[in-house]
Amino acid sequence: MKQLFMGILLVMALAVSSSPVHAAAKPIQIKIDGVVVASDAESEIKNKRTMVPLRMISESLGAQVEWSKQGIIITKKDTQIKLRPDSDSVTTNGKTLLLDAAPYIKNGRTMVPLRFFSETFGCGVDYKDAVAAVDCGALVIRDTEIETMRHEYHMTMGGVVRQMEGNALNAAIYDAFIEHKGGSVEAPADYSWMYTIDVLGSYYKAGQYDFLDADGNSVKQYDIYSLIKAFPAELLEGRPEVLLHDVTDNKWYLFSDKGKEIISEMIDTADHYGFLQVISNTVA
């Protein structure tokens, strides 16, 4: 009788543990422009709203995040969001709004409502099963939709070619080229992929950025060149440190070091969140 009673208890325990009521909630998967975003913090549903890590969603949409005493500031082009954790009051371009789900901190991450951030930055959100898909629309250059951006850089021995998905990030990088491009200049006397010190005032290509259409054709290519500083500073006086080559139109421009830094950071962001795919790597 005792064995029969224990058997009944075991069956009941198994039935309860396998019940849908006690099943673990399926994590929310975030897709941005068709790419499953990699994140070290899981998104979750709270008060019927999808909450995502602030830095992940902001940077994946090409925005910059800054923490200050006044709160958190998220900026992308002419759109700026200011908020504080645990406050449902948020300021967008100077206009105060009330969120239906206040940001909060969990495991060291600030969680924010996905739909508000996506739509504020001009993207749509669609839900299906446990997937939240954010669609930002394609970058258009010369009346052509851009499918991907190919990034190439070289080292002493070999080079790396990577392909970047993500409409929002591609658009943010393209905007950075436009925003930080200076006046036109003549092509330098010496420039190449190689870091050589044989010619005074020579430039090496720090990176190649090629915006491609759906068929893989180049619509716009920019190359960033940096001055080789292997000479005393007085000998290089008057030479710009960074140049931009518009390969498509074969024109040269001054380019800011800040622009170079911003683009490099966005490439790192794309790599961190899974938007970059290595096409080839010949680095020894």
Q: Keywords for this structure?
A:
single chain; five-stranded antiparallel sheet; 284 residues; alpha+beta; Copper Amine Oxidase, Chain A, domain 1
- End-to-end gap: 73 Å
Residues in helix, %: 10-25%
Which class best fits the helix and strand makeup? alpha+beta
- Rg, please? 25 Å
Our estimate of the beta-strand percent is 35-45%
Number of domains: 2
Taken from the alpha-carbon principal axes, the silhouette is elongated
Could you describe the largest sheet, including whether it forms a barrel? 9 strands, mixed
Report the order of strands and helices.
HEEEEHEEEEEEEHEEEEEEHEEEEEEHE
What number is the mean pLDDT?
89
Question: Would you report the number of β strands?
Answer: 24
Please tally the helical runs, counting DSSP H or I stretches of 4 or more residues.
5
Low-pLDDT stretches: 4-24
Pfam families: Cu_amine_oxidN1
Signal peptide: 1-23
Keywords: Signal
Organism: Paenibacillus nanensis
Structural description of this entry:
Helix 4 packs antiparallel against helix 5. This protein is elongated. Strand 3 and strand 4 (49-53) form a beta hairpin. Strands 16, 17, 18, 19, 20, 21, 22, 23 and 24 form a nine-stranded mixed beta sheet that branches. The protein contains five helices and 24 strands. The longest helix has 16 residues, at 2-17. The chain has 284 residues and is α+β, with helices and mostly antiparallel strands.
